[in-house]
Amino acid sequence: MSGGFPRGWFVVGFSQDLNPEELRPARYFGRDFVIWRSAAGELRVFDAHCPHLGAHLGHGGKVEGDSIRCPFHAWGFDGTGKCSDIPYASRIPPKARVGAHPTLERNGTLMMWFDPAGGPAEEYVPHVQEFGGDDWTPWMHRTAVIKTHPREVVENVADVAHFPLVHGNEVLSFEAAFEGPTATQSTRTTGYDKKGRLTKQHTVATYYGPAIQFSHMDGEFPTVILNAHTPIDENELELRMGLLIKGIDYESKTGRLLGDMWIDALQEGYFQDVAIWEHKRWQDEPMLCDGDGPISDLRKWYAQFYQPASEAT
Fold this sequence. Notes:
The chain has 4 helices and 18 strands. Strands 12-18-17-16-15-14-13 form a 7-stranded antiparallel beta sheet. A 4-stranded antiparallel beta sheet has the order 2-3-4-9, with no helix packed on it. The chain has helices at residues 150-154, 162-167, 253-277, 295-303; strands spanning 8-14, 23-28, 31-37, 43-47, 62-64, 67-69, 76-77, 83-85, 100-101, 103-106, 109-114, 140-146, 170-179, 182-192, 198-208, 212-218, 223-231, 237-245.
């Protein structure tokens, strides 16, 4: 597992950012895509280029009902990717289609399924009960492009030793468990906020597949954190940080200021890691010691997403 892209669900946006009949170009996994909604609001992710003469559907294309039309010669493709209309032709080539990828809209996020082997989508992304719940804020979120490989981000699940050194938190307890497509870290930590006050947190953070993590944190306010990373290529990825908080009125000025402060603090914490990820070298055979945490177990778990689904354990 020295490179390449894993198989799984990947977040490509938040629901609020894409309206019906809207489209946008995107680049993930070293490939070009167009992300769009039908008039009825259905999410679609297609390969970007028209099979006719290669025009990019995301640059000048147009959504019409449940179809997308090419900006170059107006070929139309239905929701399955099949060519359904060529205005100037009497016959549509039977193999004319554009690649369509499985999509999922859940928890206020837009997701696409990617499998280098072309296998079917799997069902493992949970419904986050707090999303849309009473007294909970909507997603407050940030997106950043960082120069690293996804495996570096995932390794934090097992790396207990970096908490005090990078984040300044004392670890009171730490557990990690790996089962099927999930990897869960449970930690109890103490630290200090920007006002120098001692804080205590209990966080249960679970990866669902290789690229989507939801964390539940107990503290002054109950919090749900989204960590989602989607590869752009083997050297860059899109990192999304999201935050749901219970007990603040996000519609009020005070609540919005408080929410912005929390998401800023979340981003600052992530970028303490990013500053290291962007300059480190991946070690296929790291020299580990007994205080590092179950990094070897994490790598065995993560490797399943590089195997065909029929072989993964």
